[in-house]
Protein 1
Amino acid sequence: METANKMLTKIDEKVKDMKESKPWITEDEKKDVLDKAAEVKKWLDDILGKQDKLAKHEDPVFKPAEVTKKLKTLQKLYSKVAKKSKPAPPKEEKKPEDAKNNTTEGEATNSTKSEDTKSNEEKKEDTKAGKDSDAKKSEEAKTEKKSEEL
């Protein structure tokens, strides 16, 4: 139980150190960890008090596995908050002069894309027309074969 108390104290200290070392972690997140630690500490104190009242030959009030489970849950919560990465700095806005240059370049690019699109569309139409004429030829050939057979 001494180990559990040391762990609870250590987590409290680490969360308090986060205010300076990791300012991007919100107060709510820190409060969640501290509240959970306080809850575990209170639970541990309660069961230890109950255990002290029992005679040594009576069954224990708790099992070590219960303490371990609660401490692991607390440790996971702390780890989740502590591993939160620093947010990326906001992107800088471009100067108005750069924006004008980019627009001109973008317009030039768009006109080129339009020409490319037109030529691709024309190619597709040509290909489609070629397929249509091939289909017509095939149909005519089939019709001729049928008429020959009759």
Protein 2
Amino acid sequence: MSNVRCYVKPLVIVFVLAQAAVAQALAVPPTDLCPNVADILDTTSFPLDSPPALVQGQATVDFTIRVDGSVVDPVVNDVTDTAFSAPALALVARLSCKPQITSVRARLPISFRRPATLTPYLCRNYAAVMHSVAYPKEAALQGIEKGEVIMEFTLSPTGGISNLRALRFSHEVFAVEALLAMQRLECSGTGKQVQVRVPFAFRLE
């Protein structure tokens, strides 16, 4: 009987240590495991087709970091609205993590807030910039009579623009024109970081 106890006890200890290792990995701040997590969270995009009543929310994603640093097996384990599940998983897929001694399970909470609408209060020349947007000549030559783009960017507390990107566009030529327009904006900071979303509608006249 003593031989049986000799083999069982180490197994129990190993099992307990494994549980403790998982708990510790989940408690480790993501910045310690994935250096680009802050940059990734700065590009969090609110779901495009969400209902107007939905203004904010949160999703928590668990994922595994392998020995080579690759991220696999992401799972949304808590979410305030299912609309946030897909964008949360998309963010985790872009993480660049450090190699690990052994595979670890990590957890990343992600907050979502509906972007602000661009106004002269945020960017003083907003009206002039939007008025100056021309219909792309290339689109006209291709016989395209209308198009749309949804742009988004991060406005820093001091008024700097970063993470400028087209979230959706009907044709690439319209995205290029909208991007050029956004680069002409002159903005002022509000004292806090703000996500701003700008829709464009093009029509050949």
Protein 3
Amino acid sequence: MDYIKYIVTESLELMYFKFLFSPENPPRILHATKTSANFKDGGRVDLHCQASGDSQITYQWFATEFNGYDKDISGSRYTHNQNTGQLIINNLQHGKDSGYFYCVAGNAAGKIRSHRVLIQVSCKSKHRILKITVSQKYITL
């Protein structure tokens, strides 16, 4: 919202100043998932972000690879709730979901970014342990 203030100087000149005024404050992060964790392939993770502010706050989640490149977190395995600040990742995948995640909370007055949290997804073991017994004549597996 803009406000204009008019001032009359001693020499009777009319001067005006234009001010940009925002009655709102940008959001402030109150709580966000902080604990880095390890998860197994196929598992699920819930990340949370909560902020305070003068007007309705919306939330977005972002992720980066370990090398700093942006990670795509769109698709059916990802559920973003822009009103509550929750991100759910279903069916975690080692090659796709390991990385750093962070939340951005915003309102009409501005945006703020949460700290990042490390999510590591470990592979499912594809090796089987075989029992081998040896007798005098035969090897059985």
Protein 4
Amino acid sequence: MQTTHGGGGRSTIAALALGAVGLLLLHPPPAPAAEPARRPNIVFILFDDMGYGQPPCYRPGSEFKTPHLDRLAREGMRFTDAHSASSVCTPTRYGVLTGRYPWRIGQFGVLTHTSPPIIEPERLTVASLLRAQGYHTACFGKWHLGLRLKDGAAPGAPVRDGPLARGFDVFYGYTEARSIEALVAQDQLAARQPAVAVQPLLAKRAAAFIAQHARGAGTNAPPPFFLYVPLSVPHTPIVPAPEYAGKSGAGPYGDWLFEGDAVVGQIMDALDRGRLADDTLLLVSSDNGAAGRVYAPLRGCKTSIYEGGHREPFLARWPGHIRAGAVCDDTICLNDLLATCAELTGARLPDNAAEDSFSILPDLLGTATGPVRPATVHQSMRGDLAIRQGPWKLIFLTNGRRELYNLQDDLSETKDLAAAKPDVVARLQQLMQTYIANGRSTPGAPQRNAVTVSLSGGAGGKAGRKNKAGKVKGARPRPSAEPE
């Protein structure tokens, strides 16, 4: 397998982008002369708490079975240095859909079943951008970004300010793990389902959505689609369906992960049956590290600022564009989905959107000549921050301590070099201050953060959230609504 290295800026040359996405469906009638070339469908599958060391394609000898992820690695590109924006669920999902670091809004912890939405109504999301570009947008799975629903509401109750208000045409799923049985269909509460039935039901809905588009592929200029599938797996509750029980050889947890992998297979099969695979960019990753499970050589796991908390599996396939069996060592972030989708579709990002999102299209196409990101910021559930540039990672702990690691030589983060490398500490701290002051890490007009962020004194990475009176409060990680 060949290793590729990242490059380019927020976008590549326009002609390259247009050529890369100019792929027609396999058997449609010719498009009218005025019609642009066919843009790819985009599918993004997000596991919940899958650790970097769990799929065998990332850790040979893993006790877990993920045959479809392993197939995806063979047929597409495997990233070795991909990161979620946070080491817990809600903040990462905010970054995925908005392309903005969640610490900019003071979000370090996770939401509950009835938490209000944290994505601002006017903020551009991946879904709203793609819908404006003519995509049919759908989400099947765990939302966990807040919506307006009364506690104790009965089926049929209205749900407001949820996925449909953030760019999705279709939604069927649930709000967070402890309410997995309370399903939401579009904008109302649906009939409850047993927890064990939820993931199979969501998988069937996702496959049916693809089949619907496949049936329309014989029409003239069918719309492309964006399908976001945030899985339940392997997060608690651990409820593998009967057909997966005992099949992994790694206990109920392994069976649950095996079922999540099978969902990836069902989606790949649906694309194959619909003859849409060649016209689809398929991405698979996870929202944070495994809960309570450490996989060497990475230090830490879910909730941690260390690599095991936020370094994630990331697989990409787009036949004819992404070389099969490729490996990319470039540092990327799940925030990069929005800028990548913008470049794929030729959309222009306004200054007040995707402030921390860089297109990874050069990495995917193998045209990169340098890193796509100048640096990447990480955060933990407790409020720690870290900035990564090249091999160097500077951590700002909430107790005021700084830690510096060279990940090229010390991926396990065992040798703190902060005292030995004051010049590196000063340089990275200044870069982090610039990112805070500018309200963005991408080129563009400065923007306002929704909170105050300080790296001085004992504040560490703490942020503050404005209350209704306009005063600034110190942000605290919300108590986890999810069993660890």
